[in-house]
Amino acid sequence: MIRFNLNKIKLIFLLLLSEISLAAPFDAEKRILDTNGNIIPHALVKLEGQKAMLVDELGKIPQGNKTEKVTVFAMGFESLQLSWEEWVSREEIILQEKSGNLQEVVVSATRTERSVEQLPMPVTVLSSKQVQETGGIRLSEILREQTGLQITSNHGSGLQMQGMDSDYILILLDGEPLIGRTAGTFDLDRISVSNIDRIEILRGPSSAIYGSEAMGGVINIITKSYQNQSNLNLGLRHRSFNSWNPYLEMGLGNRKWNTQLFLDHFQTDGFDLRPEVVGQTQNPYRASTAQLKVSGELSEKFKVSLFGRAYQEVSDGILETGSAAGAQLLDLGNQRRDINFNPTLRFKPNADWTITLRGMSSWFGTRSETNFRSNGEAFDFQEFNQFFHRTELQTDFMANSKNLITLGLGQVIETVEATRYDALNRFDAGYFFLQHLWDPTPKTNIVTGLRADFHSQFGNRLSPKISGQYQISEKLSWQASIGAGFKAPDFRQLLLNFNNAAAGYYVFGANLAADGIARLQEQGLIAQVLINPETIGQLNAETSRAINTGFRWKPTSKTQIHVNAYRNAINNLIETAPIAQLVTGQNAFSYFNIRSVITQGVEMDVQVKLLENLSLSAGYAFLDARDLDVIDRIDNGEIFKRNAQNQTRRVTRADYGGLFNRSRHSGNFKVNYRENYSGVDLAFRAIYRGRFGFGDINGNLILDDDREYAPAWVSYNLTASKTFEKGLFLEVGGTNLLNTATPAQPNNPGRVLFIGMKIPILKLINR
Amino acid sequence: MNTIQKLIFASFIAAFLISCDNAEELAPLTPLEVTLVEDLAAPNDEIDRNTGEVIQARSFQYFSLELNELVEENEDWDIAFKGTTIRVNNSKNVTAAVVNGVFEEITEVPASATFNTDSANSFAIPTGSGNGWYNYNSATFTVTPIPGRVILVKTAADNYVKIEILSYYRGNPPVEQIDPRTTPSGYYTFQYVLQSNGTSKF
């Protein structure tokens, strides 16, 4: 593994690695353990004045010669210094885990590996342990328990971060973007979490390295890799609504090559929040994932890796439609599939240079068929196929111990073919980005980035970002970053060609609007053109400017506090607006850069390790998200509301509740307890979501009425798990134990109980 | 069938404002009546949702503001309703304008109001969500009158009327109780004030 750690400790680690001696005989007695009594593989023992010795994956410690002092290191643990006498006399050397996750390595923030504490931007890392203790099966179930993140329901389970919708959040899998959005939403339920090693949550715009979509933030999902060991794990989980999740993980590894295979299947009967209406809230579905990762060393300087993933999802359900002949039943059949193939070649000619060539190809498709139950005739048929290819060359140059410069160059081809779009459409894009990691003093880290995007559809875009961190003391550091983000207009906004026959209106993507209007004019359907045709089709990227600032504070060795405050000013948001009035009285619509929105807030997390086996954490997020044009109209006295007595009055600023679907207050409280006698781990979480606007009721289309809010609610979640000696894992638990469910939250089924197990077959056989 | 009930309110506020503002002019001595029309049934054509074809055409409901009742198409109607569309009687030169404001506070036809009649290509009261009198909420599939939209009409008898549409659903239910699948739609409840003396003051 190649690291670019400018941090002093990590440098020591590297220096130590470079002079490791492997020849020494083993010390059979001694073991280096964590506080749970498990062997820490790959620890390092440094005898003063001698070469560092590497402990192998079985925990065997090479013997060394007598010296004054012995220091024991391991990633993620506090280092321990012992005198020679202590070293010799102890059979068990126990290292304390570093509290919190400041040591976690983060890849997505700078595209080079850095630990959280070195990063001047707000980053959270969820470990596999944190993923496991939620009992979640799909990614949405993990993220909904994190401070400041909400899962919204709009064409799937979308992520809301810093008050920004799923459209503006980039989702990466092992560092490569995932494609396939429906109405802007990336459905997090497409991602199984069984093989997740960790999740990086990067808040604030990151367009300076990732370009479009990384406007609100980035989620990077990192799947497990087994270096130098072999594994075979089988798992099975069962939960409410007749849901089943069997999975298999297989890892084969030696010193040079390793391969991971992951197979996962999930099926559920779905649930229904409104039994009085025909059709379920969530239809039954079956989803299968297969993933293969192969990586290895071609030579000392060349490394190669291949990543392949395939996903298929099938769902079915029924709907009712009203027509002249009365209500009719419709059968729905939906399919979704997703294939990724990412080869990577890495060349490291010497310690200072690394050149990485990445290819990434992705195919995403949906197919939905709706037929009349009575005669099997088609009611509706929709297909959507998207292809995305990217080739990228990244060069990292470590100029000296204080400067790391990264240059990236990339080219993108994207095509889409869909029922609602004409023909096959192709976009081409190119980009480069430049990043400078600079540690001018031991207490300061500065990251500067600039990315230029060239796009065949909407022109060029520059995205700068600068972040800085200052270590005020050993315990307190301060971070600040200013950056720009953007989101390119999507296919729908450019290419849609849609006619709602029932309501009689048309929607044209910006590219087709002029032609569409001309065609309707020829047919004599247009009464009046509302917008100068010259300006039709000029769709620009949505843009944001953001500031994030906060601190990380460790008042004691067992407590840590993270705070981040942010403000995103978002402009040119794309919305539909009428372009022409039809003779029928209906309108034809197209897309325009209309709205401006502000989202701002504060997020904080406090973690306390009260006892060796008891830790608490609490999170709170305050969010204020408003539409600036609405505020202008309120100030001009142009928005009115009507009360229950049908009296009309002007809306005031105090009435305005901001954007829909945003909770002003949200938070969580978590308790982790290990019962020492039985070895059972208990994870209790209370997740609070404050009231949020769910839809307009009083007719003015803004959030300004108490009736327009969904009530606040708390989800109480509990997981009990036990890991047996040989790694056999059992879990049982439940989420939303009070069974709170409302139609305002269609992705919340109410109480879910689950039970699961994971069997490490190879470990059980081998020992 | 539709029931048209007449309820009369004394419009004290309006009278008060007028009498204050226009001390020199001749102020109306008696406050103008507010007429409430409830559940005027004007369902839309029945449309096949697949094809957009009209299965069963329905006729407009023609209303005389002067008489406060439904009349025949060949009589002196002022406005006509069908679905969310409101026509004005262009053959009798009825004109209309849509303005923003609180119904009670509109004491005079504003100079800025532009009165039009219907033509082959356009409606005096524009159709479509957000254009004229209603918003269509695509999340809840509900049609709601835009609060603060007041329709001004110059009737066939050349009198000014101000109209506020209150509901599009039968029984004028509280908006949070409307279920677009079950609550019958196309039932207008509205209030209006007719100034029968030919002036533009209410």
Compact description:
Chain A is mostly beta strands. Chain A has nine helices and 46 strands. Chain A has a 22-stranded antiparallel barrel.
Tags for this model:
heterodimer, A: 767 residues, mainly beta, Immunoglobulin-like, 22-stranded antiparallel β-barrel, 5-stranded mixed sheet, 46 strands, disordered N terminus, B: 202 residues, 6-stranded antiparallel sheet, 4-stranded antiparallel sheet, 1 helix, 5% helix, 36% strand, globular, HmuY (chain B), HmuY protein (chain B), Plug_dom_sf (chain A), transmembrane (chain A)
Structure description:
The complex is a heterodimer of chains A (767) and B (202). Chain A is built from 9 helices and 46 strands. In chain A, strand 31 and strand 32 form a beta hairpin. Among the domains of chain A are: 87 residues, Immunoglobulin-like, CATH 2.60.40; 156 residues, no CATH class. Chain A has a 22-stranded antiparallel barrel. By secondary structure, chain A is mainly beta. Chain B has one domain. Helix content of chain B is 5%, strand content 36%. In chain B, the strands form 4 sheets. In chain B, strands 1-2-14-13-12-9 form a 6-stranded antiparallel sheet, with no helix packed on it. A 4-stranded antiparallel sheet of chain B has the order 6-5-7-8, with no helix packed on it. A two-stranded antiparallel ribbon of chain B has the order 3-4. Chain B is globular and about 50 Å long. The two termini of chain B are 32 Å apart. At the A-B interface, strand 38 and strand 39 of A face strand 3 and strand 10 of B. Chain B: This is HmuY protein. Chain B: InterPro entries: HmuY.
Radius of gyration computed on alpha carbons of chain B = 17 Å
Flag low-confidence runs of chain B: 1-24
Average pLDDT figure of chain B: 83
Q: Rg of chain A, please?
A: 28 Å
Oligomer: heterodimer
Count the strands of chain B? 14
Task: Tell me the structural class of chain B.
Answer: mainly beta
- Count, helices of chain A: 9
Helix content of chain B: under 10%
Give the helix proportion of chain A (percent range): under 10%
